[in-house]
Amino acid sequence: MTTIEATAIATAAARVQGATSRTTTEATAKAAGASVSTGAGTSTGAGTGTKTEQALVRRQSRVWREVNATITILMRDVVLSFKSPSSLIMSLVMPIMMMGMIGGNLMQNMAGGLGFDFGTFMLIGMLVNMLFMVTATGMTSLVEDERTDFTQEMRVSPVSRYSIVVGKILGSSFGAIVSMLGTVIVGLIMGITLSLGQWAIILLLSPFICLSGGALAMILIGVIKSARTANLAVMLIVMPQMFLSGAIIPIAQSSGVLFYVSRALPMTYCIDLVRAVVYAGTPEYAGVVLFNPAVSILVIAAITVVCLILGTFLFARSGKNR
Q1: CA–CA separation, 186 vs 166, rounded Å?
Q2: Residue 93 in contact with residue 183, Cβ under 8 Å?
Q3: Alpha carbon 63 to chain centroid distance?
Q4: What is the dihedral of CA 74, 314, 306, 66, to 10 degrees?
């Protein structure tokens, strides 16, 4: 099944290349006809126009090819999610374990005297945590795809490695969105609600968060060959962030080593950015938000870009060394 899917990606890319060749040939023929009819005085201008048109057609074709490959990989992961109901069930069960049990216990024992509603604080943190964590763990399927040669067949297709990685991150984010819905249901059961405007803000920021989590996981995926080891390694870098990034436990008063560790975690800035826009204009803002939103955006963007470039490089190199 995976071989057929990879072949479909390569075939689609080949069709796009074929269409580009036909379009380029037609453009060349038209330009040549124009050059003959207008004489030597305009032949140079026609030739320049032809080259410009050819470059534009090639550029448009390449963009479409990359977008097509990204969407194909994305849809493949969505289809596989529906074919594996257990993964969707786990995405719904995980919020019950993390937010319902851990968060519920914290609400009953440490919510007093904080100066803000701990339920809303925790709900926002867990929403971001689930988006980040589920996307990162979903990236480990690339290692399994190596075993079935699907990843190798994607590498030989005429598309950028970044398109493959981004498509995989977007595909993994589908499970993250399902887990976010599970978190919302648990929040409603616990009596924690947000306004429609706040939900809209979180949904708008969710692709940004998923991309950050997937890019971080790519660094490990590029150097690990075992699916079991990849799952363990990703969990080791993701699970501690749930407790050290302020998802469910406030970190405003952290000091010493914990202070520096919490400020070095990408999830810290993802959570703080969402809280900044959700709590904007409220009295609780100063007690909840750690950084200026512009600082959080710059840090997230920098970490994401660095991890995406380094992870994609390692991913491409692992294919050459195979």
Answers
A1: 30
A2: no
A3: 19
A4: -40
Q: Which two tokens stand for residue 167?
A: 């498509």
Residue 36: both structure tokens together: 């003959």
Give dist(CA 180, CA 200) in Å, integer.
13
Q: Which two tokens stand for residue 206?
A: 């969710």
From the CB of residue 55, how many other CB atoms can be counted at a distance below 10 Å? 11
Tell me which DSSP letter residue 190 carries: T
Q: What is the mean pLDDT of the chain?
A: 77
The pLDDT tens digits of the residues spanning 251-269 come to: 988 889 999 999 999 999 9
CB-CB contact of 210 with 135 (8 Å): yes
Selection from 235, 40, 247 nearest residue 136 by Cα: 235
E strand intervals along 162-282: none
Instruction: Burial-class residue 108 by CB neighbours within 10 Å (0-12, 13-18, 19+).
Output: exposed
Is residue 141 a contact partner of residue 234, using CB atoms and an 8 Å limit?
A: no
Taking only the tens place, the pLDDT of each residue in 50-108 is 778 777 766 667 778 788 878 888 888 888 777 777 777 776 777 777 777 777 777 76
Which pTM value belongs to this model? 0.74
pLDDT band at 145 (very low <50, low <70, confident <90, very high): confident
Domain ranges of the chain: 1-83, 85-320
For residue 194, give Cα distances in angstroms to 29, 174, 210, 275.
61, 22, 21, 12
The span from the CA of 215 to the CA of 310, in Å, is 9
Q: In this structure, are residues 76 and 5 in contact, taking their beta carbons and an 8 Å threshold?
A: yes
Query: Residues 142, 73: contact at Cβ < 8 Å?
Result: no
Other CB atoms within a 10 A radius of the CB of residue 198 amount to 18
- Look-up of token digits 């405007």: 197
Rounded Cα distance between 243 and 159, Å, is 39
